[in-house]
Design a protein that fits this description.
mainly alpha
């Protein structure tokens, strides 16, 4: 991937991102409201299971003192959904752009970048709504929003790297899409979205929940939005290593396979 080439085709990236945003809920009655209704419906379902089936009590945020499972759930679900949905859509982005790849010379990674950008805009809107909900719930999160945005940018880098690698691999092996469906489900339950890491009995599983590839980002999101504090230094270093490391690895894989896309399609 050449930075010079990417900048030369920045208008194409803008148009692809705009198209992604415009067509996402095209011919839908509720339109962009679905981006909020989907996580809200999941919140209701898991809240009922958490509180009335398992009769569990949410842990209080430290130092915020907030004890509210729906808000804890949403502060983890929204970043995780960004990751899972972005990668899921991106996997088919290169294959879906076969006609454009065969006719026009352009940075093929823009097909993936446009999905990431569109989904990141959606995430920012959702976090805005979550911020309002946190304020109503009595948690002053406004001073922590810059830290949350910084963590989400690291998550975006990590997500882009995964998306680049899997979208390139999917051109040659269509099983990638089916494997991702299973993998994303496993990651969801290995990530502390619907449970508190401290409540996990096995130390190995608790470590995975806190420091796993997606667990590290969700733990940081909970620290900021739910607990009201900056994540620890170790956690922040891990986020930067994961973000930049996965981005460059994914870009390397994509660049190695990209020249063969046209003939494979």
């Amino acid at each position: 991937m050449s930075l010079k080439s990417a900048m030369a085709h920045r208008n194409l990236l803008y148009l692809l991102s705009l198209k992604e945003l415009r067509t996402r809920y095209k011919k839908s009655v509720l339109g962009w409201a679905w981006s909020l209704l989907n996580p809200l419906s999941q919140m209701v379902i898991f809240t009922v299971i958490f509180r009335y089936v398992f009769k569990a009590k949410p842990l209080a945020g430290d130092p915020s003192g907030l004890a509210n499972f729906p808000l804890y759930f949403l502060s983890g679900l929204l970043p995780f959904n960004f990751f899972a949905i972005t990668v899921g859509v991106s996997i088919g982005a290169v294959q879906g752009g076969a006609g454009l790849i065969k006719k026009v010379q352009f940075p093929h990674e823009h097909l993936v970048f446009s999905v990431v950008i569109a989904q990141f805009v959606t995430l920012m809107i959702e976090l805005g709504v979550l911020t309002v909900a946190m304020l109503i719930g009595g948690n002053m999160v406004l001073p922590w929003l810059p830290a949350m945005i910084a963590v989400m940018c690291m998550l975006a880098l990590f997500t882009t790297g995964v998306a680049l690698a899997l979208s390139a691999a999917n051109v040659f092996f269509h099983d990638v899409n089916y494997l991702w469906t299973i993998g994303s489900q496993l990651l969801f339950y290995a990530t502390p979205v619907i449970y508190f890491p401290a409540s996990v009995g096995l130390p190995a599983l608790q470590y995975l929940a806190r420091y796993g590839p997606t667990g590290a980002f969700i733990t940081a999101a909970h620290d900021i939005m739910y607990d009201g504090r900056i994540p620890g230094v170790i956690n922040l270093v891990e986020l930067m290593v994961l973000g930049f490391g996965m981005f460059f690895l994914g870009a390397w894989v994509f660049n190695r396979l990209s020249p063969k896309f046209a003939e494979e399609m």
